[in-house]
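tool_call: predict_structure(chain=1)
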Amino acid sequence: MKNNRCCTRCVNDTTVKNITFDEKGLCSHCSCYDSYKPLIKDYDHLKKLFLNKITVPGNYDYDAAVGFSGGKDSTYVLYKLVKDYKLKVKAYTLDNGFMSKEARSKIDRLVKEIGVEHEYVVYDDFLLKKTYKYIVSRYLSPCIACSFLGYAAMINYASRINARVGIHGRSTYQMFRGLSDSSSDVFRPFIDAGLKDEPTDLNALYSDIIGKIDLLVDKQLASDIKNQLLVDTKTKRYRDFIAYFLYHPYDHRDIVDFLEKNTSWRVETEAEHFDCLIHNGALYLKNIVARRSHLMPEYSVMINEGIVTKEEATLKMAEKIDKHLAEKELRMLCEYADLNYNSIMLKAKIYSKRWW
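tool_result:
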């Protein structure tokens, strides 16, 4: 077993896949973040970039297709695009098979309140179960299954409804959490393309991203995902898929304050991830495999962003997940995807004894 080494600035250590450290003990995640920082903090320039992207010339039925989970970030983005930018927006919600009643209630209420068209996108049940079964068996992470299906569906949706662009509300620390592993980080190409002044070659961009997905799943599953979820991009061409918070400051406290003053959105069961009925189970499983908080790379970004201190992040990562609730959620997932719960937990414990 290797000696565990921690970054001198953030909380990342040697358990993070493909991480390296320089002679001063700074991790490759922080070094990479430093290379992006001049670009992602130049908000005058970023505003111009964003305006250029949402006003690209062409004949469109909508200005933007916006993913909407009912959470604080996507609610804020939807509100700003409709009320401040005056865009013609169609919102959509991806149903991963485990959507909570709280999420559906908030979604139905808020789309009426904001005054925007909305649609639930429901996956083919066979494809959904097949993807969960394969991904959880191989990677022990249902979130990867949601990501693969979600990216494909979101990319396709903008083409299907003839929107100028697709816009999502992932936070800065969600977008930048994979900086230490550029070889498999599906999101990095979107970031790099989004920060360039020149127009994006969308065919090249999506070929790169889809190519990474092809490497991570078997050929038949990759083919099923593309054939079922990317069908409209083949005839109606790709649309730019842009991150609202790549161009605008992100502070979760300010977002909650804004929503409570301007909308009926309120924290109910929790502020984050209340929309997914298996979130605690998924996080618990990933924590076992990682041998520490799976969210460590996100906390690294938060530290670099000045959202939390290293000490605060360390305390947050030490918080325990409700084991009883997590196991209940994992059993629900296993029953749905025809997985053996005991086998999955045994595999997770075996993986947890290995260093990446």
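agent: The first strand starts at residue 62 and ends at 67. Proceeding to next step.
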